[in-house]
């Protein structure tokens, strides 16, 4: 099956009943992107740019960042690249941007909050992305959004740098319950929504993703998380925006039928998982997946959803 999946890796991805699903990969480097393309990825749905910023004493300048992003675009050979703005704070420190001791780092300066507090970092990164050629091949994605005001602040800087051209897409990550519940409001200002299920699960269940004591219970298939994913898709659709998933739930074969059944149309998965998830999508009947997702939403807990999902897979 894996050999067959690899052989068909280059083909575009549709469900058995013909619905187009975009199968992207999460990358941290041009080497990741190359490997992802080899495996049949149709683009990069999440470039973790903080990986380019780690292990150094100073932030990379515009030219250096541009070279890094250009290398990923080149490796993708015409496929789209979604660049996530710097996502540090919480469990992701950066030495040159020290964040004062916080009692609750996960609830403190993280993601978009950090770059809004350091406008030069935001502006440099946007300039670097805009300098990549061909222009428009890179889309921009903002992490850890809790409200429309944060998106509008990023949008204002981007508009200033592009003279209002709006020729580069700007999307948001849905990683907080606030973003999921307010997805319709975000979608009015964003070009797309991509759900970060790792953080969305942490914040919905109030369980620290780095805490081994709760790791066993931290499951994105919890019905409350799935309901928020459904809300996000609904909110996006009201504004004719697509919703994807770039958290690790997208790489979980048991989760994929539920995600697509809820209306997700883009998955960004670990590069190594692309062939398997693509093969799974091709075998999937979307009508059956919708019924399955409805049943999952009615389950009492994540364990019950997993049982149901294992039955569905058979
Ligand atoms: C997520 O939170 O699901 C996500 C994709 O971002 P990260 O894991 O990098 O926080
Ligand atoms: Mg996250």
TrEMBL record:
UniProt-annotated location(s): Cytoplasm
Record-stated family: Belongs to the PEP-utilizing enzyme family.
Protein name: phosphoenolpyruvate--protein phosphotransferase
Organism the protein comes from: Sphingomonas endophytica
Phylogenetic classification of the source organism: Bacteria, Pseudomonadati, Pseudomonadota, Alphaproteobacteria, Sphingomonadales
């Amino acid at each position: 099956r894996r050999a067959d999946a690899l052989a068909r890796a280059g083909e575009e991805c549709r469900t058995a009943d013909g619905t187009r699903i975009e199968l992207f990969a999460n990358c941290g480097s041009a080497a990741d992107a190359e490997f992802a393309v080899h495996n049949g990825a149709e683009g990069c749905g999440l470039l973790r740019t903080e990986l380019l910023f780690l292990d150094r004493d100073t932030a990379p300048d515009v030219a250096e960042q541009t070279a890094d992003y250009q290398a990923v675009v080149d490796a993708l050979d015409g496929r789209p690249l979604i660049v996530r703005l710097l996502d540090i704070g919480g469990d992701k420190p950066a030495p040159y941007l020290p964040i004062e001791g916080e009692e609750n780092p996960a609830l403190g300066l993280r993601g978009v909050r950090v770059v809004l507090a350091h406008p030069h970092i935001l502006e440099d990164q946007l300039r670097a992305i805009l300098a990549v050629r061909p222009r428009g091949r890179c889309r921009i994605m903002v992490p850890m959004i809790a409200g429309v005001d944060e998106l509008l602040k990023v949008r204002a800087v981007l508009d200033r740098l592009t003279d209002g051209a709006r020729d580069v897409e700007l999307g948001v990550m849905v990683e907080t319950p606030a973003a999921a519940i307010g997805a319709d409001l975000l979608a009015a200002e964003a070009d797309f929504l991509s759900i970060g299920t790792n953080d969305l699960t942490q914040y919905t269940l109030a369980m620290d993703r780095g805490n081994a004591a709760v790791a066993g219970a931290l499951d994105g298939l919890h019905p409350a998380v799935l309901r928020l994913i459904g809300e996000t898709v609904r909110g996006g659709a009201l504004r004719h925006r697509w919703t994807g998933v770039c958290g690790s739930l997208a790489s979980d074969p048991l989760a994929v039928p539920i995600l697509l059944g809820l209306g997700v149309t883009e998955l960004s998965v670990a590069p190594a998982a692309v062939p398997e998830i693509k093969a799974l999508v091709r075998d999937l009947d979307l009508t059956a997946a919708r019924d399955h997702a409805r049943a999952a939403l009615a389950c009492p807990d994540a364990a019950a959803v997993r049982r149901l999902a294992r039955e569905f897979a058979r």
